[in-house]
Amino acid sequence: MTSARGGAGLDPPSRPVAVSTQPSRPIAIVIVTYNSAEVIADCLRALPAALEGAGESRIIVVDNASQDGTADVVALTDNEVKVVHRTGNDGFAAGVNTGFAHADGCDVLVLNADIRLAPGAVKALRAAVKPGVGVVAPKLTEPDGSIQHSLRRTPTVLRTLGEAVLGGRRAGRFGPLGETVTKPAAYERAGFVDWATGAAWLVTRECIEAIGPVEERYLLYSEETEFMLRAGAKGFKTYYEPAARAVHLGGESGTSPRLWSLLVTNKVRLHRERHGKVAAAGMWAASLLNSLPRALRGSATHKAAVKALLTQRAWPAPLSAPAKPVKDAPPYVCFSAQDWWYHNQAHSDFQLMRRVAEHRKVLLVNSIGLRMPTPGKSTQFVRRILRKAGSVAKLVRRPLPDVPGYYVMTPLPLPFYGSERVRALGAKLVRAQVRAVCAVLRMPNPIVVATIPTAWDVVQGFEHRRLVFNRSDRHSAFPEADQTTIAALEDKLLAGSDHVLYVSRQLQGEESGLTQDRAHFLDHGVDLQHFRRRAELPADIASIPGPRIGFFGSLDDYLVDFDLLERLAQEFPDASLVLIGDATLSMERFAKYSNVHWLDFRPYAQIPAYGTGFDVAIMPWLDNDWIKHANPIKMKEYLALGLAVVSTDFPEVHQYPELIRIAQGHDAFVEAVRQTLTDGGLSTVEGRREAVLPASWDSRARQLMDLAEGQR
């Protein structure tokens, strides 16, 4: 997969080449993917309109062993797409060549997964094929409509030096001094170019057969440069057609040190292969001159480029190899806001860390709490004390046999946060326990992810290489906590963290003055494989008469509006209200309603089967500060199951106004449920699921690791 990279004309080819454009020849759209779940669905959805008038076509997705469910997203978006599963990620070029092999007899349009072709784009590309043309490139724009500089001149030492001295945009105005074409007028007229970036390019069948495969040794970057320059030298020139348009979301090359260093070093390798080692030495020096000043100013990407140039090998290491040697990979310690042993395992810290543990060693520290449960103030006081004691007794365990790098511990806490002296003592106690476990597990100097503000007292005296605050909730709004103390701890954690991850746009905006450029929005994910509709319902819900108005999740008294639930029971005597989840208060108030069915806690593995039985899924939240800054994971889980959803009003639900009915007040909520029982809700089962296809937990975990390990 390539990223945004952006010609002036080549010398005329030595001989013109006749290219057949028979209407009967089909065109194959080849999309190479790797961990592209977030973008592939929209790429596929744009293709029907883009292919209008282009003749017979087929779509081939070549997946380079994605780990984020990309192939599942493809199948759910368009089950007629052919998916070619490769066993590893050995580069974009290898994926393209696989696509060529599966497109025998076709012209081939190669696309990145983050390309959105405009209507009629493929027809315009095919119309541009004429004698002497082997490759056709469209006009690429940014999502805001501005031009993406995708046209390039042949790389030379002088052009690399020109860009080093003048900057790429200024040098690009002058042909001899810049590789990237930056004059706006050049993007408004059709014509021959030396080469164009490989985010979208149509290759004729004659060109493929005459030129051969794309050079795979580059892995990423320069492979399309080499192919187009090689094709041009044999009479198959690259043509730019602005009538064919596409939006390119852009890749990571400008922000990922690893990818940027690959881009820079491959440019040297390309020069070596075309012009020999002496010429390559000049390109190497020019590239070093280009990167060194920026590296000295602190640019992480250019530091990586300088290091890569100084240690350059003949060809790059396989992409499937980790960015760092395994022995140098940082371990992670996560101070969770939940307890693995008795809370719902759908919570974000569990979902993220279990996926990070597929690549790194992870120690999840179960919640050290926000307060000590007290009789009269805390619901189910004795039960809470006993279950925490049981969790502590489990010591350190590996709960997932298929993820051996994932460890869970519950330290013995002293959750008396009102007393500064006792709080300090409690922090020392927890710190000593976590330190000891890290020593036994050989996890020195970890990256620390804190999800609960009381972790601050522990973390500030704990050796770590980086601190990430996973700001999933405003914990100071928790009614049972010492809110003043917890708010002060939140402020310290906000100020002391290297990165702050938000799931609430509302909360991120309110705290932007404190966090500034350290703040990042990392939306919740959803386990798409897990949250699928099931053919059979569990016996207990199958025996409940329909229609069923359902809720699954924790029935917490500070989150759920129990008065609203009782109102639903009263208003819909002919429907069943099904409540699935652990309750933090007595459910006796519902005993008088024969249509209310509280099924108590059900294991995470069974939740999708229960949810499949809902006719309407509800989010009956209280109107309080906690909910105002929340982003319930169940919102995406409901949608992944294709359920019709009715919710009370809170900021994050407005991200889905065309999928979820939003009600203000009890009367409006009752009416929204009534309407949904009648019409089946907003959108369709398929439409609701499609909306969350890009939201895999695997992709969210990769984003967290990129931030925590300085990859962006």
From TrEMBL:
Is this entry keyworded Transferase? yes
Region (Disordered) residue spans: 1-20
Any idea where the Glycosyltransferase 2-like domain is? 29-150
Extract the CDD domains matched here: GT_2_like_c
Under InterPro entries, the record lists: Glyco_trans_2-like, Nucleotide-diphossugar_trans
Question: In this record, what's one Pfam family?
Answer: Glycos_transf_2
Keyword Nucleotide-binding found: no
Entry protein name? GT2 family glycosyltransferase
Organism the protein comes from: Actinokineospora cianjurensis
